[in-house]
Amino acid sequence: MAIWIAVLCTLLTVVLGSLHFLGAFRRRRPKEPPLDKGYIPWLGYALDFRNNSSEFLQKMQRKHGDIFTVLIGGYYFTFVMDPLSFGAIVKESRSKLDFEKFASELVRRVFGYHPVSTDHKIIQLASTKYLMGDGLVVMTQAMMENLQNVLLHSLGAGVEGRPWSQDGLFHYSYNIVFRAGYLALYGNEPTNGTASKKKAQEHDRTHSEEVFHEFRKYDRLFPRLAYAVLPPKDKMEAERLKKLFWNMLSVKKTYTKDNISGWISSQERDLEENGVPEYMRDRFMFLLLWASQGNTGPASFWLLLYLMKHPEAMKAVREEVDQVLKESGQAVKPCSTPVNVTRDMLTKTPVLDSAVEEMLRLAAGPILIRAVVEDMNLKMANGEDYILRGGDRVALFPYVAVQMDPEIHPEPLTFKYNRFLNPDGTKKDFYKNGKKLKYSTMPWGAGTSICPGRFFAVNEIKLFVFLMLLYYDMELVNGEEEIPPIDNSRWGFGMMQPTHDIQFRYRLRF
Ligand code: HEM
């Protein structure tokens, strides 16, 4: 008899434990946001969220309002959709809302890197020194020189007339910006004397092409890898690519290069000083490659595409670019050395700046996630008080909450190149409910986890577009073709990508 009671008790414990694990007992407590667990135990809304986070969150916002908690793959996420209340989340101390917990799990899974507690500080220190202020001048110059090699190396040489070349615009933009950015950060093939300079440049071009080719394979697998839903064959391919990159970007190989950026070398050294073993530092190099090169290429694609689709925007940006070049005392001439666009010249382009911000508003879709360390109060901008439960996650999705809000950005789906400019050329402010917004777009995230490469990223995009407009005439092969839709499987990971490429042609302007 006693045995049967013990068996029954164990069974009951297992059943209750499983039900608890699956979320069956979770109830909304007083002052907590509306709770929606969906219909599938444990998974909740995981499938809807993964298939199209943007559509899912719009639906939830219509159903529950500006704050709600949803079950996604065993985790409870509270989404705050009111931009006036964002400050309460992004400014909260790390002892209450921790961004590293979630990021660490992701980084382990997708890059094989095991984070240490000093990583964030190391990234921040290196980025402040090498990607901002004087460091940004150096990095912008390095990007410029590598763009000259990758984009302008054969300027009209040996070609009669001005024939058109054709390519997929996404492939072309991503390829050029990735390769130049990679070389600027990770260094160039060493040279010894001018005789081998040409050879070294040629090597840089072929090597960076190879890196890009492999990177795109990984990039395509990335969203499903991050959600841990890759089928076995793709999982094996992701493992192969990870190992390939750990090797290709290994610390040993990196130090054989010339012109390695301070951003890369100082982070590597700091990790070593903090006791991170070399094989782990190889993996960190791969993490940095993805963070630094996965977004600027797609962003450059969207910007060129919007400019081509909006001739008045193309005209305004081209006039500005031509004017800035003229003021610098340079001119674009056939078969001469390429022009040098400096960081200083990039500070004189308010129209291009507005076009970049508008492109980011339309095509950047990060999701900011923090772990709720213990129960805490959240005061919304409208005065309502909520309790966030310890162990849950709190998340912001600025694309829906701000960037597509017609009250903040009228006709939100339309590209308006001068949306961020006042008629006198100064930067515009944006309002909701009559209150000025601190965050009218949020492509870079915000708070402690804000993208530390944002100033360099903008300069990379601007340099590429600057040179394309100075040197080339461009047009879509089919001018009537619609802008391709966004690939909905990539929400949450930074810049969005199109579902398919679009063909364009380009030829020298002179
Ligand atoms: C259009 C281009 C880019 C976009 C839209 C972008 C966006 C972002 C976003 C949304 C985050 C995460 C913020 C969060 O979790 O709250 C991030 C993190 C990061 N980004 Fe960028 N980024 C871009 C380019 C770059 C570049 C060029 C670099 C470096 C050269 C860079 C380096 C990083 C690093 C290292 C992190 C992780 C920071 C940390 O964990 O402390 N990003 N980026």
| Distinct ligand kinds | protoporphyrin IX containing FE
Shape: globular
Q: Whole-number average pLDDT?
A: 94
Q: What is the strand content?
A: 5-15%
What is the first-to-last residue Cα distance? 96 Å
Strand order of the largest sheet: 1-2-3-9-6-4
Strand element count: 13
User: What is the CATH homologous superfamily assignment of the largest domain?
Assistant: Cytochrome P450
Radius of gyration: 25 Å
Instruction: Write down the domain tally.
Output: 2
Helix content: 40-55%
- CATH architectural label of the largest domain: Orthogonal Bundle
CATH class of the largest domain: Mainly Alpha
> Which structural category fits the helices and strands?
alpha+beta
* Largest sheet report: 6 strands, mixed
- What fold name stands as the CATH topology of the largest domain? Cytochrome p450
GO biological process, one term: lipid metabolic process
Keywords: Endoplasmic reticulum, Heme, Iron, Lipid biosynthesis, Lipid metabolism, Membrane, Metal-binding, Signal, Transmembrane, Transmembrane helix
Signal peptide: 1-17
Binding site for heme: 451
